[in-house]
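User: Can you write out an input/output pair for a complex, sequences first and structure second?

Assistant: Here is one pair. Inputs:
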Amino acid sequence: MTTQPKTANITADDVAIAAGVSRWTVNRAFKKDASISPKTRDKVMKIAEEMGYIPDLRAASLASDRSNLVALLVDDFSNPHKLVMLERLTTAMRSRGWDTLLVNTLDANDTAPALMHASRRRVDASILIGLQFDDDVLETVQKAHNIKKLIIFARRSEQENTISICVDDRQATLEIANYVADKGYKKPFYVAGPRTTSAHLSRKETFAEYWSNTFGTDVQSLAVGAYDSILATNAVQTRFANVPSDGLPDILVCENDAIAMGAIDAVRHHLGLRVPEDIAVFGFDDVPQGASPNYRLSTYRQPMTDMANYLVDVLESNDTTNMDRQFIGTLIIRESA
Amino acid sequence: MTTQPKTANITADDVAIAAGVSRWTVNRAFKKDASISPKTRDKVMKIAEEMGYIPDLRAASLASDRSNLVALLVDDFSNPHKLVMLERLTTAMRSRGWDTLLVNTLDANDTAPALMHASRRRVDASILIGLQFDDDVLETVQKAHNIKKLIIFARRSEQENTISICVDDRQATLEIANYVADKGYKKPFYVAGPRTTSAHLSRKETFAEYWSNTFGTDVQSLAVGAYDSILATNAVQTRFANVPSDGLPDILVCENDAIAMGAIDAVRHHLGLRVPEDIAVFGFDDVPQGASPNYRLSTYRQPMTDMANYLVDVLESNDTTNMDRQFIGTLIIRESA
DNA sequence: AAATATGTTGCACGCGTGTGCAAAAGTCGT
DNA sequence: ACGACTTTTGCACACGCGTGCAACATATTT
């Protein structure tokens, strides 16, 4: 970059003078539903364009106490589903005038600092997307800082003063369990993700409950340390490496696709078995990679676009009491189960 | 969310009064290298903490003309490598005090509007990460708006007034070509991504040039419409579906891993051949998924962390002429080639 | 103890815009 | 052409903090 032509930043005042109107009229021209005549707006916009004027949102935000900025805290970049979420959220938000401050939560203890940091930019809301935020942390954070809106996305939270937008986990899990039972699987095994101290019933527990109620048998399970395929592969491999074939499950029901794909890899490449003939696998999320002919993963799709749009509704509403909402997704059946 | 306790926003003035110092001293306490005695700083910080004071970066930015905000424009969320980049970039930036404004470039024509939109927040720099930004667009954008720093990340650009931070494509491709030749492959085929109007030699051209110079034979190729595995699978399948086996290549050299993984799927599941015995596959980027036992993808790793750190160096430097830089990565050899 | 160096604190002014209201200009019917 | 509307425009004040310098306080030297 060479030096700019020393153009002392152009303000609305400059444009106003050039256009022969007041500064306020200039800013009105840029404001969507402002009361201004089309004629003057055109004139102002044209001159503004020529002069290269761009309204300063810092000043606007300072004066209006609304930033139109939303912090998006992400704590786990290894799950490809995050990319889908990011895409859907940013699309929905930007198309409706909301900007995204992407905050990488470095580790589990960084949630509070990260949230506080975002507050320095006076974000209108903070969105938590990811699962390491357990309810304890939220409580602490919520008390300490005056967060305007705290939205938990794609995860259930019972926390007070928090808006949770997610899929109905219970319903989803029951649909999956139903499918698994209908297809005649007898020995399901649940592969869960990292334990969170969330208050509500986890997918694993819902599944186990259903199975126990229906067949009177317990469902065994294991927990992977993170939503990461490689870790899942290792976990599944070590868990079943020395298990005789009649002790193996006939289906691995996984908490999400990242784990499910890792599980498939383990079944095929470490246990030397076939999917789904020997062991079937079921996922959750419907990540694009799951559609690959390698995986053909049966899974459950969350209505991400609807959820993202609803999130913007929440951003735009003033009274956000009771705006928690659970969405219903759809079973995606491919060949893995 | 219930209504907050109507706490009219706490400012430095409030803290100053409570602490018996001037407002400026309060802000100094929050400023890293400010000239302030440890004693007063502690006192101020303690009171600020109690009162829940959080400095307002909008006002700070307005007054200082430095926002410490960087726009990150992303135009393609289907390539899992983006997730890696996002993670590395945000980690490097946040750890050194830079915030990220994530802007989803809705389509190819949205680059200019997106950049302009970011300017409204007076970002200190804009980073382009993704390949749909061709040089024509950049030129237009550059002229129209007073962008402070325009950084092209992970892609070469010859554009004036632009800082390009990327891997040395030529060197990388030559390393790959060398490896392919050394291993005795005779009939390589190049699977490229979408064509960009970039001025410099593409990876495909470099590879073809090497092959032609070394063996005197041309390298055939095909271009996939996007860096997307599914599209790549389809493209490879249709290209080779009716080709007799002696007309098939012995290795597919791919422009990146997303395409390479799609190519592997096509070879195995549509052409019914083995990787690498019948057709080998080579990638680029080293995405985590490539390490899966399903793919065991041989590829080229870009030094993302170094590149991200260097990017922050650029953010922090005043004179950014001649800061273009090309990094050297490393060949990652697994079983796919 | 005075003189000098060093560290610490206070302040006038400016950064660029929104809010709510009042004044001015335009519209319409008769 | 007049009154009663409606639309459009202008404005005082506020938003919260940084800059650069001057004043003040404390530590160091002679």
